[in-house]
Amino acid sequence: MLQCLSDALTQRGYDSLTAVQEAVTRADLQDADLLVSAQTGSGKTVGFGLAIAPTLFDADGTLGVAQAPLALVVAPTRELALQVKRELGWLYAKADARVTTCIGGMDMRDERRALERGAHIVVGTPGRLRDHIQRGSLDMGSLRAIVLDEADEMLDLGFREDLEFMLAEAPQERRTLMFSATVPTAIARLAEKYQRDAVRVTTLGSESQHSDIAYQVLRVAEQDSENAIINLLRYHDAENAIVFANTRAMVNRLTARLTNRGFSVVALSGELSQNERTHALQAMRDGRARVCVATDVAARGIDLPGLELVIHAELPSSAEGLLHRSGRTGRAGRKGISAVIVTPKTARKAERLLSFAKIDADWIAAPSADEILRMDEERLLADPVWSTEPEPEQQDFAARLLALHGPEKIAVAYLALHRAQLCAPEDLADPDTRPERRERKPFGPSRWFALSVGRDDRAEPRWLLPLLCRAGNLDKDAIGAIRVQQSESVVEIAEAAVPGFLAAIGDAGQLEEGVTVRPMEGAPAPAAAPRKAGPRPDRPERAPRPKKDSRTDERPDAAPHPARTVEPKPAAIPEAAAAPETRATPKSDAPRAPVSAAAPASDRPKAPAKKAAPKSDRAKPYSSKPAPASERPRSFAKKVASSDAPKPRQRPRTEDGAPRSAAPGRPSEPRRPESKPRSGAPDKPRNKPFGKPQGNPAEKDRRGGPAGAATRKPDAKPKPPRANAADTSKRFTPPKAAGKQGTPGKPKPQGARPGASPRRKGPGGNEPPRRG
Fold first, then answer.
1. pLDDT tens digits, residue range 135-183?
2. Do domains 3-202 and 446-519 have the same CATH topology?
3. Which contiguous run of DSSP H or E holds residue 20?
4. Calpha distance 642→645 (Å, rounded)
5. What number does CATH give the domain 446-519?
């Protein structure tokens, strides 16, 4: 071990190393990757600080100038990261090491400036470290060692991707040390992927967990769980104590309750900011607070000096959580107590947790008020103040007291003053006693009223009760039973409160919009009561069922099925006969008989039965087949000329491609072509408007425009309105006078640009010379 580290341990008060510290500082493991599993509170932080020292120090025993970080320590929580920084700070203080942190919730700009100034060791949480790596403010090129503290907890919190990202960005020749209380399968896979021939180091023996911690299980009644916490704190009077709860709401509730009882309490939960959490832990270290109420955010890595008592106000969700919570006490060889509050409902769960954690706990009763008072007296007699020599001023005052009062009276007064500074203990009920049910007093004479809302309107007593109290000017005690029925609800109101209720609702009898009240004559009919528990009445015995064989014997024989006949396959139709005619024979022109004169159904001749169409012969795939219905020629009937004849039910359809016949009584006109014949001229340009510009003066445009206006494309952008000289809201530029440029009154030559001088004829002008 380096001399600077040995001097730091001696100055800190270390006489010897713990088992895990000795295991990781062996000479043969100085360059190896380590996978260490040790119980909570065994000194893992100082252990990996000593383990990475040979890798960080140069040959001359120094760390060199602080530039890019040499070691990276990753912790799951902010509190644990700050604690690791403090531990490494005093351990490497004599080596002039610079240790900095990158923690979520802190100012990222300050961390970036600290990294730019240089650091030997960087401690942080996974998310913030990844941010610095991606932004380029954390240089991983000179890294020699990476330490993952509480690796199993980081995987449980969902930091797998962040850890894999950092391990992939680090150099390949670095050392990787993983420290964890347990080594599950996920940790083993991570070590196999990112470590090189890792050496497994474990200090967990076969004996029970946390031999320096005394586990106690206190059975209390359901309503005395918080009172038992107060009695425990009063009975042990620990220098520092921590109370664990499962939710933030429970933390706030216990904090308020203990503060009202006179305890100096701080809260620690995830809803607090990082500064608030840091101040809370510092208050515990400074002695300004003696009780910390926290969630599982303080279950790992938190090391509070003099923490003697851990109380589990609520059971943790797993055995590992129970071990990590209890590990806040009994650290570094000190003794501690872990007390679990158990009610009759949670007793079985507590037994399972203790069994899974392999913990032998003592099931005891919670301290009573008499036991707490006796413990106060014992502590008072053992107080070191009795062995100190009194000052002269104190002796003079003691003589005056003895002269005025006797010794016994002075002792009783002193004991009363001592107890007045402490909160009074709570009286606890027997754990097996159940809370007594409150007997409701008789309601007395009452009247019933019906409300116009029921189950169809989603009426519930929880909102009908405050509505009656608010709108009906009633007290809660004046309202009796509330029965919600299908279409209405009935309410019982005390007879003494009925006049005030009727005056409040008025003649309209309206509580609020949509809810009216009407008085009832007498009490409503009681609802159908549920069936009483007990055996059902005996049913009459049923007649014995006939046997299966007898039923089959009595069943008549079924008639045999008729024989199945197969009709012979019809002969193939010759092609000449199968070919359809080119045109069907038209129907007769004789008028049809009226529908009313139809013969009865019994006198109608029956049509001959249709024969099934012949199936296609699979053996002759190319044989002739009947044409499909869509290709068969249609039959057309001549139109009846007589107007007296009945109209046909369906209009005859013309054959495709045949010329249309002229309508009767109208001269035939030549058929208009379907489309305009296409000429050889090119298409219109795209920017040319639709329609002819001249148009028809006699007609107007279909869109309401003037005749001759070009038809614009639909959805086209409208033209801007023509400028109006009378409109003074817009600037108007008058047109220039004709002939202003050049000779007045003379028209401008064709083709000349605006402002150009006219061409001169003759030689020397702008015209080209003529030939010939």
1. 999 999 999 999 999 888 888 888 899 999 999 999 989 999 998 877 8
2. no
3. helix 19-24
4. 6
5. 3.30.70.330
Q: Which CATH class is domain 3-202?
A: alpha beta
Q: How confident is the model at residue 650 (pLDDT cuts 50, 70, 90)?
A: low
Quote the tokens at residue 504: 């409040």
Q: pLDDT tens digit string along 477-509?
A: 899 999 999 999 999 999 999 999 999 988 888
Instruction: Write down the pTM of the prediction.
Output: 0.52
Beta bridge partners of 267: 293
Task: Give which of 428, 259, 433, 228 is closest to 339, Cα–Cα.
Answer: 228
Token pair, residue 19, equals 């088992």
In CATH, the number for domain 213-378 is: 3.40.50.300
Q: Are strands 121-124 and 307-312 parallel, antiparallel or unpaired?
A: unpaired
Contacts of 87 (CB under 8 A, 6+ apart): 45, 46, 49
Q: Where are the beta strands (DSSP E) in 6-94?
A: 34-37, 71-74
Q: What are phi and psi of 695, to 5 degrees?
A: 70, -165
What does the DSSP assignment read for 481-522?
EEEE-SS-EEEEEEGGGHHHHHHHHTTTTEEETTEEEEE-SS
Q: How buried is residue 564: exposed, middle or buried, by Cβ count under 10 Å (0-12/13-18/19+)?
A: exposed
All structural domains of the chain with their residue ranges? 3-202, 213-378, 446-519
Interstrand relation of 121-124 and 99-102 (parallel, antiparallel or unpaired): parallel
Please return the burial class of 493, using the count of CB atoms within 10 Å of its CB with bins 0-12, 13-18 and 19+: buried
pLDDT one-digit tens code per residue, 102-142: 998 888 999 999 999 999 999 999 999 999 999 999 999 99
Contact 304, 285 (CB under 8 A): yes
CA angle 569, 570, 574 (to 5 degrees): 140
